[in-house]
Fold these 2 entries.
Entry 1:
Amino acid sequence: METLIFDLKKQIIEALNLEDITPDDIDTNAPLFVEGLGLDSIDALELIVLMEKQYGIKLEDPGKSKEIFRSVATMADYISKNRKK
Amino acid sequence: MIKPLAYNIVSSLGFSAQDNYAAVRRGQSGIVPWLDPAGTPIALSHLDREKLQDAFEKQCKPSQKYTEPEQAMLLSASLAVAEAGINPASVRTGFVLSSTKGNIELLGIPDHGLGTERIHLWHTAGLLAAHFNNPNLPLTVTNACISGAAAQIAALKMLENGLYDHVVVTGVDMASDFIVAGFQSFKSLDPERCRPFDARRKGLNIGEAAATIVFGKADGKGISLTRGNVRNDANHISGPSRTGEGLFRALSRTLEDLPRDEIAFICAHGTATSFNDQMEAIAFTRAGLQHTPVFSLKAHFGHTMGAAGVLESIISMKALEDGIILPSLGYEEPGIEGGLNISTATVHTNKRYIIKTLSGFGGCNAALLYQTHS
Amino acid sequence: MKKITAYSRITDSLVILNGKPCEITFSCEPGPGRLAEIYRFLESGYPKFFKMDNLSKAGFLASEMVLRSLHYDMESPDESTAVVFANRSSSLDNDKRFQETISREDYFPSPAVFVYTLPNIVTGEVAIRNKILGETSFFILESFDAEKMMIFVDWAFASAGTRRVLCGWTEYLDGHSDLLVMMVEKESDKGFDFNKQNINNIYRT
């Protein structure tokens, strides 16, 4: 789980072009949207692409994926249970 | 004020403005089941390539190879110019192209053999002017989904400032893999025919079309384009404003103190995405238009992008000519907070003003006001 | 007479604000790296910059320089400012990037790249940054044309309530930048005349 969380943080930083942020700067349990990293609707769509590209997980629209994208921890949990690659 | 002298629409519903308008009056939709580049089912207003090429070759007698968007553009412009009876080669005639992605399909065909300049929008506009032996530098307007309105506003300024006597405004866009994949990545496509303003709306359909309006100076008769304005939301590059800020301001500047009860209808952008339709309701209400009949043409044509502003204005003007408010196809169940007066049946009207609105990526919003003098 | 009250110029080798070269020592080749260096030089503190495509980054920076030199109030929403840009290559630089995400072998279309496949997004980015609610427009021309620029500005001023127009040529393709962004004001006792000769002079510097 530790490795997955670290890899996921690196992938999020790269996919969302988060400049001047390292994996250590991201609080695993903090909300990703609005507060925390302050991500927006396009970032949510980009996270859907990340899930499919890196883990083979196809997600529906961002509305239904809200719970999964709540924090890095919730994302990692979902990935570990549903990953196809 | 400027006056449309002739119109044309090339879409899945026909190759003339009259055929397209008649299809709308019959409640017909050009949207058919289709597949995105990954093989996922979508719905698309598809322009038949064979029919397009046949009509294009018959009308334009080309002496060189043209791409599909170029064929649609030239066919539409050429039919409208012929109907208007203007001299397109005159130094007093100007051409304006409205397109978002033009020949973008060529990016996916590295060996297309048409030269590196072919992908550029200025080159596409150049082909348009060159087809008519027009000596002036054509203008390309590319302002996302409001391009077709921005192009008409440009024509209004050109004619009012005496730059030209006639301006040909042509909008065109095709559903390239590029555009379909992009909208799909935005999760904004409804796999079925779209439902603007409806409670069950799930997204938009892409539409392929070219449309042309030939404008001249107004003479106090028939229909005229009176005013038009563009305003920005300054909110988000893809998400509509929660307060409808830009659209509200574009409408306020365009309507000025025109009594709202003199407006026959609004032909809204009505893409059938959840946020767009709600944003429009907020803006219309803020502009005092909550009781004005509203319809969207997207369930007939899909979202025709760079052509949308031109095509939907033409259908609206034809409805105004007939004194008719069109029903909003695909709308059944109220699905907008605050509510709007969505048109559900063909209704006669003797009011003289109509509004066309559009909103697009980049936070831009446009409102156009047309009126009939007869 | 309309006046140019501030202007900026960004090319592969130059960054100029109101006629004066900025003292930036570049360590990167012309292109995205250099745009990031200009961003850091300006100390804009706007992390969203890094999410933009290159055209938006370049247009954002050129606008940022002009507006800051005028102490433009970026906190108060204002409808009296318009943003009118033009270029040659539309969003082709970023279109190529999006095309890479939809190849048959590796088909993962990126929404964050797709949204920038429209050139007018740069006008939206400038509007968002500065709370500009006025007109935003984008035109395509084969090459820079001062006369056309003057016509576009006239059109923007014809829209009721417009008092100033941030206008310019914002071209970016394959690592090469060519930008001229000007603030044109209707009633100002500062600046210099907005005419063909002056526009061409500053474009050619």
Entry 2:
Amino acid sequence: MNTAKRKIPFGFIDDQAKREIRRSILKAIAIPGYQTPYSSREMPMARGFGTGGLQLTLSLVGRQDVVKVIDQGSDDSVNAVNIRQFVQDVCEGVQTTLRTQEASLIQTRHRIPEVPLREDQVLVFQVPYPDSLVIVESNEATRKCMHGEGDYSRLLVKLYEDMVHFKKITLSHRYPTQIHTHYVIDPSPIPRYDVPRLHQAPNLFLFGAGREKKIYAVPPYTEARPLVLDDIPFEVEDFTHPETGDRYCCEVCGSDRSFLEEFKQADGGSVWQCSDTDFCASMLEAAEAAEGVI
Amino acid sequence: MSYVAAKGGRKAIQAANEAMEYLRTRNTDQSALLLETIKTQLHGLLSRVLSEGGLYSEELAALAIKQAAGDTLEAAYYLRAHRSACPRLGETPVHCGSEMRVIRRVSAAFKDIPGGQILGPTPDYLQRLFRFELLKEDQQAFSEVTQRWFATPGMDTEIPDTFPKVLDALRAEGLLPPAEDAAEKRPFDITREPLVFPLPRSAGLSIMARGETGSVLAMGYSNMRGYGDVHPTVAELRVGYLPITVPHSVTGEPVEAGEILMTECEVVAMFEADEEGAPPVFTLGYGACFGRNEAKAVCMAVLDRSMDIGRKQGPSNPSEDEEFVLLHVDGIESMGFATHYKMPHYITFESDLDRIRQARNAAGKGEDA
């Protein structure tokens, strides 16, 4: 056997696979929220580690692209580092960045960046569960019929039962979201805080579930509404102090409007910090620049 | 600042990778595993990785085993990932197991079968007792086994290239449903076509052929134990080398490109009532996979049968539900998803914390629903 390093094609996956994925993307955009089945290739990282998102990224990326990869909002999370490194290794000439504004293609796990995206940017989500109906129905063939008929009654019953049992809707993340008044999608495990940002956004959102072999999309300027009961308003995560009612601020940059991660302290208390590390760094730089001016 | 999340992901990954490499090579007195050693002395492991990886390359499978330090799930993954980067150069026609150069064939249905039973190499009748002499084994010992083996009386007996299928005899008697003309139907390609249920039988067979051995075994066993009612009889189980032909690039005529070691199992199960009043016939189940993996082939044949029952009558247990079986037998998928739970879930857990705090708050206040 040839021991020399085998040449890996640009973008790793073979051209036939890229073509299939691009066609599936077009179909997904044409039918907003519809889970387009595709054959899904194995990637050199484990299923569940973002192989669906990665296949989308590798099928879309061109040499002029600037790629950003985040996990939990951070570019420095081990999985984000690993995926970014892989993209660099198999896509010769492609630039990567940590800056949201510089990126043309962003692959993300569990967050939408804080700064609103532009029309010329694409956000690719890594998706573990592509179907919100799996909460109430385990059989895929049955769920497909329910989607076709726009039958989301059992999800609404689940919301109602939550109110009866807990006086709150318990769905914490992956909140079922109705796209363009028909298909309800699982928007990937983003927090509820990020769900309203899918609505009428200028950019394209693409969702890739590698293990479950589905691709779906929220096209630019498309309606995206969380599934709710008429008289129970949708709630995002609450970052206010239970007693004072003040909103927690990021310990690093001081932001009082970003999604925060909680860090438990030795004394039992918590401090809070932006999950979007690029946003946090930008806030800090802006503050430092302002100080410098003074 | 103690609360700042761990930074330096790249360095951590690199150090972790180096630690893995050190684990494999830490005994500097040892010589590196030769691929040839893996191929011959660990042929059971090689078979398993070939079959779950779904790419027949003994060389790459052995390298995968070496790189993965013997972890079958990881090793099979190397083959699968490699496959994704390979272009498709051509397709073989449909092959039949009757073309196999058999090294082993047994039938549990008949005492004697046309061509005869060939026990061949099998661990079935090894007594699972330790052979402590293997603790110290040298090349001399290897040569002695070889010499003894070739000196066995009857070694030079001519055996035919191929053997008839046991099923052919039953089919001639009209006891089996007529064979589908497989060559006419293009098999479903699970690596190129999206899976939409219900799937054609060929898709199910392909998924199971690449299925994780333990998963296929567990699902098949559940049916055998009583969560199902297949009660198979192994009409024939054969292991051997199947010559693979590809169309010649100029003439289009089939040319032999090599051969693959395979295990194939055909089971016969009890007959079903025919609504149109035709005479009853036995039902069939088929299992086949790369390498020598007999438990997997038997279980696959049982599952092929049980899923057929599920398709016709509706599933009444997990092994009859094709979605349940086929979406859970793949080792690459199940292993990946199970291990992904180790990755950070800070954000989703923050959302969970928010919900439980809010719900407790609401309960405490006695808020109106």
